[in-house]
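tmp note - methylmalonyl-CoA mutase
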Amino acid sequence: MTVPPDELDLAAAFPPVDRDRWRDLVRGVLRKSGAATDDTPLADVEGLLTRDSYDGVPLAPLYTAEDAVPGRPGLAPAPRPVRPDGEGLAGWDVRQHHADPDPAATRDAILADLENGATSVWLALGAGGVPVASLADALRGVYLDLAPVVLDAGAETAAAAEAFFELLAARGAAASAAGNLGADPLGRTARTGAAAPLAEATDLAVRCARGFPALRAITVDATVYHDAGGSDADELGAALAAVVAYLRALTDAGLTVDEAFGQIDLRLAVNADQFLSIAKLRAARRLWARVAEVCGAAEDTAARLHAVTSAAMMTRRDPWVNMLRTTVAAFAAGAGGADAVTVRPFDARIGLPDAFSRRIARNTQTLLLEEANLARVMDPAGGSWYVEAVTDGLAHAAWDRFTEIERAGGLAAALESGLVAERIAATWERRRADIAHRRAPLTGVSEFPNLAETLPERPPAPLVPGGGLPTVRYAQDFEDLRDRADAHAAATGARPRVYLAVLGPVAVHTARASFAANLFQAGGIETVSGPPEEFAASGAPVACLCSSDRLYAEQAEDAARILKEAGARRVWLAGKGSFPGVDDRIFAGCDAVAVLTTTLGDLGVNR
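out:
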């Protein structure tokens, strides 16, 4: 009988490989593409594959123990608390958002959610949701001592809080009801542009601290900076500046440092960039812990993070793909240590969600919690050299943003001066360019669009007051082009069309013809294909040559001449090369939005 060794070395059968050997092999691969040569120093190889995040945090192709960040997974600032009875992690709060102005419909939706897996309620009130006067009707049947309620009332926060206080008193739940009143005057200023006094938030916080021990008053909603196009560090830096501003106001109002920290929740966006979203939440806890340390708060003062799947990443076109986006984002929220998670329904960009889309959003979290057991690990990403390094880099970038805001006089002053808006606008322009060039592809929108799709119909969602920072959507430029093409098709009975003039056999032109069709369809333009001689019969005013480089050299000039003589207003070429008669090229990495805008103009599609 063979006795197994005490230690099992899984790499024992393989020769040792050091970092330089790996770099040498990578250099060989890069040499084939022309990105490297035999003379490229090994020390430079990783830099050829390293890219920076929008915050300047380097994202390298390889991380090893050499890149380890000091610290141990699960230790302070640890994500999510352990149950007092020692039975393990507490998991996270499944928080569903409700904004239907009809109190009866909202009540039915809330009860259905709570009966089927949701554990708390995020309720929009006022101009963006249920009338404040109908708060009690919307929460009828909800056990307020069991299900925390988080309010979001914007300019009507004070009235909503008063109505909630009265409801708690009537239900006898003042001592046990948990949740948050949602006061965030700085966030409201960022969203609407209107100044809001901090006294509203401090008065509510003092009242909660004195008479409602389980209820908190302030939610620092940093999603407004994300929704404006900001980066992770932009969002974290502004959030931290808001936290510090509220701490100053709360302690000036008579609360202790620990009481002040106890009145604040953080709300952050998570998107389909899984690892950066994980790093963002882990960095948020580090930043919170640092502020708590400097303020002299108790050692166990932990941030309470509410992660919300990004509104900016959601698409109106091919909305079913949103399920994939929100699943990845929800996983990142859980792995990053969120205390509460809200998954936006896949149809959120279309209107008010129906029962099916709410169920999918709810069950996404149920699967992660109950089947994937994601919450059973305290810090799933802890110890990953990659995640730890990105967390550290992001925390430092966010601290730089925070200190910049503080030097400008605090968040209120930075919002008024335009500092925050300028920072975010610069980030958005870089991201927008990446989307336009399809370096950041959007499945179902900029890639693999479905021109024959039938979108689900939903009642319109109430408009949230704006006027401050802009609200952007990653898909907005492509979806605007699709809307123009659809309106043209509805008005004329024919969809805008581009003719793909293919050269040579199918095996030669298929790859570039498929690429061109995918690009033009992203703007709502249908394509038909055939030889250049059949262009006139297609009824299309614009053509695109599709073939191999070799055939372009032999036939592109004659083909372009045939197309122009047949009336082509513009001739594109898919791929490389410049030839007489060819007006422009489309290629991987080209500005697809500019190409589509030009093409719709050539096709007579009005703006």
